Amino acid sequence: SNASLYPQWQGSHFMQNAREFFAVTGTVYLVGQIKQPPFDCQSLANLQPAYVMFMQKLFGQHTHCDQVQLR
User: Fold this and answer.
1) What CA–CA distances, in Å, run from 68 to 11, 29, 30, 41, 65?
2) pLDDT tens by residue, 36-51
């Protein structure tokens, strides 16, 4: 479950359901920084590097995530 990966953001909008999770994290990946959790690509990559790699395969490389350090 994503809840165990993001305990600090448990009540956040993107944690409501799978659709919101994908919508918000997809926005972070495609647009860059946003004003709600998870805020930016590095935050995603720190906790879910494989998910960011999935986004790269799905949407292609984006400049907002070029500098992200995947572990």
Assistant:
1) 25, 11, 13, 7, 5
2) 999 999 888 888 889 9
